[in-house]
Amino acid sequence: MGWDRPKWVVEDELGQVVGYAIAWRAPWTEPGELIYTLVVDPKIRGNGVGNALYDAVYQWAVQVKASRLVGYMKESDERSLAFAERRNHVKERHSFESVLELATFDGGTLAASIQEAERAGIQFITLADEPGEASERKLYELYKITHLDIPGYSGDFPWFEEWKKWSIAQNGVRPEWIHIAKDGERFIGVVTLQQNEQTRAMYHEYTGVLPEYRGRRIALALKMLGVQTAQACGVPYLKTHNDSMNAPMLRINRDLIGFRAEPGSFRMACELR
């Protein structure tokens, strides 16, 4: 239950931390599942530190009656992937970031999708146009429904206050950067942008369209509104995350708009006996 985060550290003879592990789960995480992170200083790998940390995580997971452990590892980190596979982890999913360089971006006729949707009766606003809790709760319901279709998504959806904290109230998210598609008074699609203070670049924090409105290029229109917002803000590039199994979103991001995939990570899972 809750945000329990047990932590383990390994120190060298000088008292410096050379490795650590963290295990955690949120209240809405799938029952029995524990997510963990394990890091060892590259200079001392192969000396048993990783083994000791993993054993501590594993024993704790068994003690609290977890049924599976899940870790995320870069696809380019062959050594860590081999470490996990030797401990009965299997690759469940592949996710990766995609980048759109705005200085060289030419959307061609893609922006016409905005006018097409408007001619079909869809209205585009931002959360700044209709602020307040009533709109936020409509947005929450939209997120909640569309999250179910994210490949690999499991567990329950967080309650309203927790969702708000980790989505539209995050640092770098502004109401004017939350683009919403409306059919009448119903919120039927959204694109939320978040800006990184250090790089000044923007991130597509979320994209979602209700199932019954898909196939009408509304997601593309929302994406293009996001691109236009980023360009108006003078940011150097846009980033987003993709799952290799999410063919409809890959079609928009990669094939139509031209996001370039970067090396990603594998979700590695181990069933506990």
In terms of topology, how is this protein built?
Blueprint: E1 7-11, E2 17-24, E3 33-40, H1 49-63, E4 68-74, H2 78-86, E5 90-101, H3 112-119, E6 123-126, H4 133-147, H5 160-166, E7 178-183, E8 186-195, E9 202-209, H6 218-232, E10 237-243, H7 247-257, E11 260-261, E12 265-271
Parallel strand pairs: 3-4, 9-10
Antiparallel strand pairs: 1-2, 2-3, 4-12, 5-10, 5-11, 5-12, 6-7, 7-8, 8-9
Domain N-acetyltransferase: 1-106, 129-273
InterPro entries: Acyl_CoA_acyltransferase (IPR016181), GNAT_dom (IPR000182)
Keywords: Acyltransferase, Transferase
Structural overview:
InterPro entries: Acyl_CoA_acyltransferase, GNAT_dom. With 273 residues, the protein is α+β, with helices and mostly antiparallel strands. It has 2 domains: 7-95 and 266-271, Gcn5-related N-acetyltransferase (GNAT) (Aminopeptidase, 3-Layer(aba) Sandwich), CATH 3.40.630.30; 97-262, Aminopeptidase (3-Layer(aba) Sandwich). It contains 7 helices and 12 strands. Strands 1, 2, 3, 4, 5, 6, 7, 8, 9, 10, 11 and 12 form a 12-stranded mixed beta sheet that branches. α3 (112-119) crosses α6 (218-232). It starts with 6 loop residues before the first strand and ends with a strand.
